[in-house]
Amino acid sequence: MADDRDHDTEHTSVIERDGGGGGGGGVLAVVVLIIIVLVLLWIFRAQLGLTHGTTVSVPNTIDVNVNQS
């Protein structure tokens, strides 16, 4: 019976880097889209009615009477 351990056998491993782990681009796109939507909501918050409606009215002149008798 022949002994197979006397000769060397070469093994080759093929590693594909193109298709594996390519989900990072989609996650980045979703994060950028969420940031853009939040910035637009912050810019147009007054037009969308997202403010609390606190308005401060300051008069142009104040009448002070110092001649009290």
Task: Walk me through what this model shows.
- The protein has 69 residues and is mainly α.
- The protein is 29% helix and 0% strand.
- The chain has one helix at residues 24-43.
- The chain is rod-shaped, with a radius of gyration of 37 Å.
- The mean pLDDT is 79.
* Average pLDDT metric: 79
Class from helix and strand fractions:
mainly alpha
Beta percentage is under 5%
* Helix content, binned percent: 25-40%
SSE arrangement, N to C: H
**How far apart are the first and last residues' alpha carbons, in Å?**
133 Å
Query: How many DSSP-defined strands?
Result: 0
Largest sheet: none
Low-confidence stretches: none
Shape: rod-shaped
Name the quaternary structure. single chain
Q: Rg, please?
A: 37 Å
**Count, helices:** 1
Features:
69 residues; mainly alpha
Provide a brief overview of the structure.
The chain has one helix at about 25-45.
Helices and strands, with pairings:
Elements lengths: L23 H20 L26
